[in-house]
Design a protein that fits this description.
The complex is a heterodimer of chains A (about 325) and B (about 300). Chain A has 14 helices and no strands. Chain A has about 325 residues and is mainly alpha-helical. In chain A, α5 runs antiparallel to α11 and α12 packs antiparallel against α13. By secondary structure, chain B is mainly α. Chain B contains 13 helices and no strands. Chain B is elongated, with a radius of gyration of 22 Å. The chains are: A mainly alpha (about 325), B mainly alpha (about 300). The interface between A and B is large, with 62 and 51 residues.
Chain lengths: ~325, ~300
C-alpha cells in the first residue's frame, strides 16, 4: 500500500517535469531565425502548405496560446509532418522507435549483466592485475568516440574477418521481415518462430550493441566496484566478520546495501545510451529514431527534430522515475 | 571523463580552499603520479599544435592533391591520404586549432557562468526572500536541463540555430554550465559556514560582496579541477557533432569530420582514413582527463595522504 502511495506521489511529480520539458522544446523551435511556418513546412512547400502550417501552429496568436496549441497537439499525437518523408512525424516515429528501443535496451541490459558481476569481482579481489586492466580500460573507454569504435569493429570483424554481416541495417536484404508484433525484429522473429530471420537479426544486432556496451559498461563497473568496496569496509560488515559469517554471506549483505548508487548509475547509463544510440545508428544504418533525427538536422526538417528531443527527454524522465521506484523497493529506510 | 560527471554522486569533492601552494609540491606530486605528467605532456602537445599545427604541416591541410586519393601510409604520406587526396597527417595536426578553440572558449564561458550561478545558488540557498527564490530557480532549471541527453540537446541546439563554429561554441557552453554550477554550489555551501564569512559580514560588507569577494575565491577549487575534463568532453562533443554533419563544416580539418569522411572507406579496407583521427581524439581526451584527475587528487587533502 505504501508503494502505491509513493508511486502516486512520484508520478504526480512527473507532470510538472513533463511540462517544463515541453516548454523548453517549444522554445527550441523559436530559436530559429525566420518565419517558423516557412521553416516547418520545408523549402519545397507550396504557399497553401505554409498557410496550413501557420494555422496549425497558431502563429497569429499570442505566444502562450501557441504553446497551449502545441501541447494540445502533442497530447493528441500530432507532432507535425516531416517534409522529407511526407508522412506525419507520428507515423515516422512509430516505424523507427522499435529499432532504437531494441538497440538501447539490449545494450543497457548487456552492460548491466556484465558490468555488475565484473564490478563485484574487482571489488572483492583488490589490487590484482584485473584492477589495473580495468582502470586502463575505463580511462580509454571514456576518451574514445563511440562512433569511431563502431567503425573499428566493423573494419575488424566485417571487412577483415568476415564474421559479422555488414552495417546495412537490421536484417539481411534477402530475409523477409517477420510479422510485426513488438516492432523489434529480434523479438518478432522469436515470437513467429522464424529462425532464419532471428539469426540474421541477432547477427546484425551484435556489433552495434557491442560498440555501445564496450563504451558505457565501464560506468557500471566503476560504480559497482566503489559501492561494494565501501560496503565491505562498513561497520555492519565488520560486525558480520567478527561474528564469523562466511565470505558469501558478507558479500550478499554488502551487495544489497550497495545497490542504491548502482541503480542510479544504471539510470545514467541509459541516459548516455540514448545519445550514443544516435551516433551508432548512423554508423550502422540502423533505421531507428537516432538516424531519423540526424537526417532531420542535416536537412533542416524541424518537426521531426522537435519531436525527437521531446521523446528523448520523456524517456529520460521515465527512466529516472523507474530508478526512484527501484530505490523504494530496495531500501526499506525510505519507506518509513 | 564521463565518470568525472559522477564524482559528486560517488563522493570525493575536493575540499575548498585547502590546496597546497608552491611549485615544489606540484613537482613532488607529479613524481608520484606519472599519469599526470603524461596528461600534461599531451595537453602541451595539443596546445602547441593548435598554434603551430597548420604551419608545420608537410602538406596544406585543405588542399586536395589530384590523383592521390586513398594512398596508404608511406614515407611521403605518413598517415596516408583520404578519398579526396588530402594528406591525413597534415589534417590531423591542423585539427587541434579548431577543436581547441571551440573547447577552450566554450569551457571558459561555461566555467564563468556556472561558477557565478553556483555561487548565487549556494550562497543564498535557504536564505529568506529573493535570494532563496533565485537559488531554487537556478537548481530547478539545471535539473530539468539534465532530462535531455547531452549529445541530443547539442544536436538540437545546433540543428535549430544552424551549423557553424559560433553555434557549436554556444551550444557546448550552455550544456556544460550545470556541471560547474553543481560543483561550485556544493563548495560554496561548505565555505559559507566558515568563521571568516561571518567576520566579513560583521565588518559591514553587503551580502553580495561577501558572496563574491570573500566566499567565491575560496570555493573555486572543485570547479577549477573540472575544467580540464570539461575541455576533453567538449572536444568529444564537437567531434560527434561534426561526424553527423552538424558541427564544423568540411573541409576544415576536424577529427570528427575526418572520421565521417573516412567512414565509407573503413568498410572497403582503407582503414587509415578513419583510424588516425580516432586515435588522435582518444589520446587527446585521455590527456585532458588525466590532467583533470591529477588536479582533483592534488587538491584533495584526503587523497594525498
Amino acid at each position: 500500500m505504501r508503494f502505491a502511495k509513493y508511486t502516486g506521489r512520484r508520478l504526480l511529480f512527473l507532470i510538472p517535469q513533463l511540462f517544463a520539458v515541453s516548454i523548453i522544446v517549444f522554445f527550441l523551435v523559436r530559436l530559429l531565425p525566420g518565419d517558423p511556418a516557412f521553416l516547418m513546412a520545408g523549402q519545397f512547400a507550396t504557399q497553401e502548405r505554409i498557410e496550413e502550417v501557420r494555422r496549425d501552429l497558431g502563429l497569429d496568436r499570442p505566444l502562450y496560446e501557441q504553446y497551449l496549441i502545441y501541447v494540445g497537439n502533442v497530447l493528441q499525437g500530432d507532432f507535425g509532418r516531416s517534409w522529407r518523408t511526407s508522412q506525419s512525424v507520428l507515423q515516422d516515429v512509430r516505424q523507427r522507435l522499435p529499432a532504437t528501443l531494441e538497440l538501447v535496451l539490449s545494450a543497457g541490459l548487456l552492460s548491466v549483466a556484465l558490468g555488475i558481476p565484473i564490478g563485484v569481482y574487482t571489488a572483492v579481489k583488490r589490487r590484482g592485475v584485473a584492477d589495473k586492466v580495468l582502470f586502463g580500460y575505463g580511462m580509454l573507454a571514456g576518451s574514445i568516440p563511440d562512433f569511431w569504435l563502431g567503425l573499428i569493429l566493423i573494419f575488424v570483424f566485417f571487412s577483415k574477418l568476415g564474421i559479422v554481416p555488414g552495417p546495412i541495417g537490421q536484417l539481411d536484404p534477402i530475409v523477409a521481415t517477420p510479422p510485426p508484433v513488438t516492432g523489434m525484429i529480434v523479438l518478432d522473429a522469436l515470437i513467429a518462430g522464424e529462425w532464419e530471420a532471428f539469426r540474421s537479426a541477432l547477427w546484425h544486432l551484435l556489433l552495434p550493441v557491442a560498440t555501445l556496451t564496450l563504451v558505457y559498461m565501464t560506468l557500471i563497473i566503476k560504480n559497482t566496484r566503489s559501492a561494494v568496496e565501501e560496503m565491505m569496509e562498513s561497520d555492519f560488515v565488520e560486525h558480520g566478520r567478527a561474528l564469523g559469517l562466511s565470505r558469501r554471506m558478507l558479500l550478499r549483505y554488502a551487495l544489497r546495501n550497495a545497490m542504491p548508487p548502482v541503480v542510479t548509475v544504471i539510470g545514467i547509463v541509459f541516459w548516455f545510451l540514448l545519445g550514443g544510440a544516435v551516433l551508432v545508428e548512423t554508423v550502422f544504418a540502423w533505421g531507428g529514431l537516432g538516424q531519423y533525427a540526424v537526417e532531420a538536422v542535416v536537412n533542416s526538417d524541424y518537426a521531426p527534430l522537435q519531436a525527437f528531443v521531446l521523446l528523448a527527454a520523456v524517456f529520460t524522465l521515465v527512466v529516472f522515475l523507474l530508478v526512484d521506484l527501484a530505490y523504494f523497493l530496495i531500501d526499506p529506510r525510505i519507506r518509513t | 571523463m564521463r565518470d568525472q560527471a559522477l564524482t559528486p554522486l560517488v563522493g570525493g569533492l575536493a575540499r575548498p580552499g585547502s590546496a597546497p601552494r608552491g611549485l615544489r609540491s606540484v613537482i613532488a606530486f607529479s613524481r608520484k603520479r606519472p599519469s599526470f605528467l603524461v596528461g600534461l605532456a599531451i595537453v602541451a602537445v595539443t596546445l602547441f599544435l593548435a598554434v603551430f599545427g597548420p604551419a608545420i604541416a608537410p602538406y596544406h591541410p585543405e588542399r586536395a592533391l589530384p590523383g592521390a586519393g586513398l594512398l596508404p601510409p608511406s614515407p611521403e604520406h605518413w598517415m596516408g591520404t583520404d578519398v579526396a587526396g588530402m594528406d591525413i597527417f597534415s589534417r590531423i595536426i591542423s585539427a587541434p586549432r579548431i577543436d581547441l578553440t571551440i573547447a577552450l572558449v566554450s569551457s571558459l564561458l561555461a566555467f564563468v557562468l556556472g561558477v557565478v550561478l553556483g555561487v548565487i545558488s549556494g550562497f543564498f540557498a535557504g536564505a529568506p526572500g529573493l535570494g532563496r527564490f533565485l537559488s531554487e530557480g537556478i537548481m530547478r532549471s539545471a535539473d530539468i536541463l539534465q532530462a535531455f541527453p547531452i549529445f541530443i540537446f547539442a544536436l538540437a541546439l545546433v540543428g535549430f540555430r544552424g551549423p557553424g563554429v559560433e553555434n557549436v561554441i554556444a551550444a557546448l557552453a550552455f550544456l556544460n554550465i550545470p556541471y560547474f554550477l553543481r560543483v561550485t554550489r556544493g563548495s560554496v555551501l561548505q565555505v559559507r559556514e566558515r568563521p571568516f564569512v561571518e567576520a566579513a559580514r560583521c565588518a559591514g560588507n553587503s551580502e553580495l560582496r561577501v558572496a563574491f569577494v570573500h566566499v567565491m575565491p575560496n570555493a573555486l577549487t572543485p570547479a577549477l579541477a573540472n575544467i580540464s575534463p570539461g575541455i576533453g568532453f567538449a572536444i568529444l562533443l564537437t567531434a560527434a557533432l561534426s561526424f553527423v554533419g552538424a558541427g564544423v563544416p568540411k573541409p576544415t580539418p576536424e577529427w570528427g569530420s575526418m572520421i565521417s569522411i573516412g567512414a565509407p572507406n573503413m568498410m572497403t579496407g582503407q582503414w587509415w582514413t578513419a583510424f588516425f583521427p580516432g586515435v588522435a581524439l582518444g589520446v587527446t581526451v585521455l590527456g585532458y582527463a588525466l590532467v583533470g584527475d591529477g588536479l582533483r587528487d592534488y587538491l584533495d587533502p584526503v587523497k594525498r595522504s
